[in-house]
Design goal:
By secondary structure, chain A is an all-alpha fold. In chain A, 74% of the residues lie in helices and 0% in strands. Chain A has 25 helices and no strands. The N terminus of chain A is likely disordered. Helix content of chain B is 35%, strand content 27%. The chains are: A mainly alpha, B alpha/beta.
Chain lengths: 560, 243
């Protein structure tokens, strides 16, 4: 009786879970409301004048057209790359297919702006290494083609991952039945496999479209010098003008980008749910392997060439660049550790950037795991109405382009909030919130997976043994979910460590991160020095190392 | 010479793991032969080697006097060239094609003229009692109906042999009884050669001319259902067919 009265007034459970839910709404939903409020009610009154003004500017309509064009071209290119690759790696006797799978999916974890730096070193028209080696104008990276090429060389992994998983899960007897009907392997692929994987292919394609439209680093580094502006780079320019009208125009463009992004996500979910045939059977036999026979050498050469272009070439380019005294020179006397020494010990910002990135990423990862743990508990283990929508809410900022998230956060958290909280503009706090908000959904999804795998009776046994709810959360659930939570922590930490898009908008003096410092060194501070390559190589090493850790702690469930 | 021959056929996986070991078996034209045994005994692997979906690592497989696979000389006829019909345990009815297109597919691959396709599909659908459902999508069919689509698709190209891999295991008991009779009747009317894989000895005994009992990749006994029941080769066979 006493217990019941007590729990009606104050339940520690309500406190913890309530705080987590408040954090979820406060950080993941409120900023976007603020953004829309600011652009639709610029002076307290509803008006579309801001939109009319923004979209009547030729520079902005060109940016919109460019965004659509680049995103479409990248999507098509990625499909043509990923679909044959997925087929080769799942259906044929391609040698060492498993190793190639991990390797070819790895660019998924590396931020594309790293690739932009590599390709600028390799193929810029004045000092590029390839024009130097091959002679003549091989290919100018500062072009439309260059932009599409660099984006596609990373984003093909989105489609590769979705189509690989679709082909892995497909009941192999669909294809075997077609073989026995007399169809050749290629015919089987065209008539059976391709139609059955169409939903995954379309949703993978939409993700690539969205990722291209949302990307900032590559368009800034490559599109800038080529005078090709996309929506994200226009938002950046408008925001950096610093005027109120610039920010409002950036907001108008952002809300368009956000609506496009959310519609794309919605469409992709709709397609994959609606058109999903029952293609997965309980019994999964190994699909019979198609022997490549005389085509094998050609297939191997093709895949190796592709791997060389998207992987070996840019990474070795960055390595050579980081060791070159003069960019583009390949004489032996040109090499040394001068850049490394300069960047690591002479550039003042380096230490600060590494420190900031580490603290911010670790902080955001920790916060995300705590909130994600609690929110996913509510989602999976309570019957709170609407609870199943929490992971959708948590993934809202992830689905929204980083530029838009950053702008929404600036609008929400600069100036006094509720008249009491201090402005967070130009502080590490705002960057921390940005990382936390953007990658929270990784933590929610991963720990929700963890909760679903554990039977409730384990917790009930603990309660029956006399443990309180909080004790059960800490002593039963936490240890049981440890692998998921550790994986979640690294899944947030990894992208935050090299984040560029949001940070460039939120950064200020003293607030450098690895991403912004690379951008700064590449764009103006050290453009001819190869300093950016030193940091880019460090990022690649960190990403590969963390990916390895994630794969180990999750027994191969997460990571590439 | 027998119609289908397995001559010292083995399937070895790396590490000397035998899925099937030294299979010797002859099947006559028009015969209904069942492979019977517990799961993992090698019966499905044997069937899949006959279809060409798995490659035997040793020995020779012949259909109608034609060498389909001879491991030692690296001769291998791919499944699409074997003219073998197959019904899968999961039916494998393509969800993106309607009933007619599912059944017509082998004829389209063979580039048969349109009116011939129309006529042959219609007559086969009549045999499996699916006429009238041509335009249905597989998602709108019951398990039993999907099974019949799969059967029609296997029959439509007039295969040299029809292979059935546990085709009734996903149906309820009542439907299973009817399908057993129907499959046997179709086989006898069309004078088909059928190789049937099952772990259910009632299925094997009621439908087959001969039963092949397997265990651990090896054949324990071959004979008519009566012979095996009256004269089991060893205690395992006796125990297995007694149930």
């Amino acid at each position: 009786m006493v217990n019941r009265i007590k729990s009606a007034f104050f339940d520690i459970r309500v406190l913890f879970l309530g705080l987590a839910l408040v954090a979820l709404f406060f950080f993941c939903v409120l900023p976007f409301f603020t953004l829309f409020e600011r652009v639709l009610f610029p002076e307290g009154q509803f008006t579309l004048s801001l939109f009319e003004e923004t979209f009547s500017s030729p520079a902005i309509t060109i940016a919109i057209k460019n965004t659509l064009l680049v995103s479409s071209l990248v999507t098509i290119t990625c499909m043509f790359i990923a679909v044959p690759l997925a087929w080769l790696l799942t259906r044929t006797d391609f040698p060492a297919a498993r190793k190639f799978r991990s390797l070819l999916c790895l660019p998924f974890a590396i931020p594309p702006y790293i690739g932009a730096i590599a390709w600028i070193y390799l193929a810029n028209p004045t000092t590029g290494l390839l024009p130097h080696l091959v002679g003549g104008d091989l290919f100018n990276i500062y072009s439309f083609t260059g932009l599409v090429f660099v984006e596609a060389s990373f984003l093909y992994t989105f489609i590769l991952l979705t189509t690989l998983s679709s082909l892995d899960r497909m009941d192999s007897s669909f294809e075997e039945a077609a073989r026995l009907s007399g169809a050749s392997p290629l015919r089987v692929f065209r008539d059976i496999s391709l139609p059955l994987m169409r939903p995954s292919l379309i949703s993978g394609g939409l993700l690539v479209f969205l990722a291209t439209a949302a990307s900032f680093g590559v368009p800034a580094l490559i599109g800038g010098p080529a005078r090709i502006y996309l929506m994200t780079t226009q938002i950046y320019t408008l925001q950096k003008m610093g005027s109120v009208s610039g920010i409002l125009k950036a907001g108008a463009l952002s809300s368009l980008l956000m609506v496009t992004a959310l519609l794309t996500i919605f469409l992709s979910q709709f397609i994959s749910r609606k058109a999903k045939f029952q293609t997965v059977s309980g019994k999964t036999s190994r699909p019979s392997v198609i022997e490549l026979g005389k085509w094998k050498p050609l297939a191997v050469i093709g895949v190796l060439t592709f791997g060389f272009i998207v992987f070996v070439l840019p990474i070795s380019g960055i390595l050579i660049s980081s060791l070159s005294k003069v960019q583009g020179d390949v004489g032996l006397s040109n090499f040394g550790f001068g850049n490394w020494y300069r960047v690591l010990f002479e550039v003042d910002e380096t230490g600060r950037a590494l420190f900031n990135s580490f603290i911010l990423s670790a902080g955001a990862a920790t916060l995300a795991v705590i909130v994600g743990y609690l929110v996913s508990y509510v989602q999976t283990k309570t019957r709170l109405p609407g609870g199943h929508l929490f992971d959708v809410i948590a993934s809202l900022p992830y689905a929204t382009p980083g530029t838009v998230v950053a702008l929404a956060l600036i609008m929400t958290f600069s100036g006094q909030l509720f008249g009491v909280l201090p402005s967070l503009y130009n502080t590490l706090g705002l960057i921390l919130i940005a990382y936390f908000v953007k990658y929270l959904s990784f933590a929610v999804k991963t720990s929700a997976d963890g909760f679903r795998q554990v039977d409730d009776v384990l917790a009930e046994a603990s309660r029956v043994s006399g443990a309180s709810w909080l004790q059960t959360m800490i002593r039963i659930w936490l240890p049981l979910l440890k692998p998921s939570l550790v994986a979640a922590w690294f899944l947030v930490f990894m992208p935050a460590m090299s984040e560029l898009t949001m940070t460039t908008l939120l950064t200020g003096p003293g607030l450098e991160t690895i991403g912004t410092l690379i951008f700064q060194l590449q764009e103006y501070a050290d453009a001819s020095g190869g300093g950016a390559s030193v940091l880019a190589l460090i990022v690649i090493i960190i990403v590969i190392a963390i990916n390895y850790v994630v794969k180990r702690v999750s027994n191969g469930k997460y990571g590439l | 010479m027998s119609y289908i021959q397995f001559q010292k056929v083995s399937k070895v996986f790396p590490g000397e793991v035998y899925a099937v070991k030294d299979l010797n078996l002859s099947i006559e034209r028009g015969e209904f032969v069942s492979f019977l045994g517990p799961s993992g005994c090698g019966k499905t692997t044997s069937l899949r080697m006959l279809a060409g979906l798995e490659k035997n690592t040793h020995g020779t497989i012949l259909i109608d006097g034609v060498n389909m696979s001879q491991a030692e000389s690296h001769l291998f006829v791919p499944p699409e060239k074997r003219k073998v019909g197959m019904v899968f345990q999961s039916y494998a009815v393509w969800p993106h094609m309607n009933v007619f297109e599912n059944v017509a597919y082998p004829l389209r691959i063979a580039k048969k003229p349109k009116d011939e396709i129309q006529q042959r599909v219609n007559s086969i659908l009549e045999i499996v009692e699916l006429n009238g459902l041509e335009a249905r999508m597989p998602g709108q069919l019951s398990g039993g109906q999907q099974q019949r689509v799969a059967l029609a698709r296997g029959l439509v190209m007039e295969p040299r042999v029809l292979l059935l891999d546990e085709p009734l295991s996903n149906l309820d008991a009542q439907l299973r009884g009817k399908m057993r009779k129907d499959i046997r009747a179709i086989q006898q009317n069309l004078k088909l050669t059928v190789v049937y894989v099952t772990h259910d000895q009632i299925e094997a005994n009621t439908m087959s001319d001969r039963v092949v009992i397997m265990r651990g990749g090896k054949v324990l006994q071959v004979g008519t259902p009566d012979q095996i029941r009256n004269n089991p080769a060893d205690s395992f066979v006796a125990e297995f067919v007694k149930q």
